[in-house]
Amino acid sequence: MTYDSRLKDDFTEDLFEAILLLENKEDCYRFFEDICTVAEIKALAQRLEVAKMLDQNYTYTDIAERTGASTATISRVKRCLYFGADGYRTILDRLKEQKNKR
Question: Could you tell me the CATH superfamily of domain 39-102?
């Protein structure tokens, strides 16, 4: 599956090119602190954690308690995880691979 073509424009292309230039976590912290609010970064991190927990078959209740995510957010992440553009799946698989290499 491909990504939503509504995302693609010159600004988004430039953003993703910039992100691909980040070399380490320190670069990520500095860039994202400048480009996003703390709340936006925390929301993105929360969604990734929700995806990880859904992938591990946690219940909505457990996910909500651990992450503070609403059931609406959990449902949206679940829909994207199983019926989206495979972005979550790609990252979750890569994170597992990285963990197994350690």
Answer: TrpR-like (1.10.1270.10)
